[in-house]
Design brief:
Radius of gyration: 21 Å
Structural class: mainly beta
Distance between the termini: 35 Å
Low-confidence stretches: none
Strand content: 25-35%
Largest sheet: 8 strands, antiparallel
Order of helices and strands: EHEHEHEEEEEEEEEEHEEEEHEE
Number of strands: 19
Length: about 325
């Protein structure tokens, strides 16, 4: 099985990162392990504009190719993969060290050193690499990833709010006030959340961090709060979506209509700024409010570039 995956294209600051953790977008990397466990050889062709922490993907691959960004010359990669000519071989060598950790630090060890590379004659068998990224207890913010593969991405956490009380979600299912939250399936088993309101008391769900985050640059740069969602009821659900600092301006929200099928929703960050939200001081990257009877699924919450150059505040 040949899997081609990697980073989405980006321009200027929209590709800036605080860490080197590869977060899949679109391709379910769990399939690598599924095929490998069935004894099917797995070849990963990884596309990126920089070295990234990919230990789980390397561990689940029999061969891993750092193809960088081939542009229109992807045919050259297939020539090597299928060795269309006996003289074709992998001659490329790393022009950068490949990171052993997702943290950015001058003291980081290299997983593969500058100049490393294999060819068809190589007999190297690598040990299984550690799958701790180094971000688990870090204050380093994710690169616009807030909730992915069924878990919040450090330093973000999941919280339920009822009046002045806050409950951090540590296990599932759990309930608080008029909210019940559990796991559900979207692209993979339990990779999403199911949030149900049993009362109309103003209780809400949020993805928050302990420290304030400045998102003004992302707002000015036409970034969008992006997530997948669906309604579990027989009709569409109306929810209120927002960003805020603790309890300040948390009532400044947008009404978003959630349909009965999984769908991607996009909201321009500039919409929240127009509501009066201080984008230089954000602790809740996403908050969701609903009325009694609202029952929705939520997955893959992140920031993405505006794909149509048209700011939208309705989720479409």
């Amino acid at each position: 099985m040949i899997a081609v995956y990697g980073e989405d294209p980006y321009a200027e600051f929209q590709g800036d990162r605080e860490n080197l953790d590869f977060v899949p977008n679109g391709f379910d990397v769990n399939k690598l392990g599924i095929y490998k466990n069935k004894g099917i050889p797995v070849v990963s062709v990884f596309l990126s504009g920089r070295p990234m922490w990919t230990n789980p993907e390397i561990n689940n691959s029999d061969a891993f190719i750092a193809a960088w960004l081939p542009g229109s010359e992807g045919g050259g990669i297939s020539d090597l993969l299928f060795q269309r000519d006996p003289s074709y071989d992998f001659k490329g060598r790393l022009s950068f060290t490949w990171p052993a950790s997702a943290l950015v630090s001058e003291n980081n060890e290299a997983l593969f050193k500058f100049g490393y590379g294999l060819n068809y004659a190589s007999k190297d068998n690598l040990d299984v690499f550690p799958e701790k990224s180094g971000l688990e207890n870090s204050d380093v913010s994710s690169t616009g990833q807030f909730f992915n593969k069924g878990a919040s991405v450090a330093p973000w956490g999941l919280r339920l709010i009822s009046g002045d009380l806050v409950k951090q979600i540590a296990s599932f299912p759990t309930s608080y006030g008029g909210l019940i939250i559990s796991k559900t399936d979207h692209m993979a088993q339990e990779d999403g959340l199911r949030i149900k309101w049993t009362k109309s008391d103003g209780d809400y769900f949020r993805i928050s961090s302990a420290k304030s985050n400045d998102m003004s640059r992302q707002s000015n740069g036409a970034m969008e709060l992006t997530f997948n969602a669906k309604s579990f009821t027989d009709s569409d659900a109306i929810v209120q979506i927002g960003q805020c600092y603790n309890s300040t301006n948390c009532d400044n929200t947008l009404d978003i209509n959630i349909s009965g099928n999984w769908k991607e929703y996009r909201i321009s960050l500039s919409c929240f700024e127009k509501l009066g939200v201080d984008m230089t001081n954000i602790t809740s990257a996403l908050l969701i409010k609903g009325e009694k009877g609202v029952d929705i699924g939520l997955s893959d919450v992140r920031l993405e570039s505006d794909i149509d150059a048209k700011p939208g505040c309705d989720g479409n």
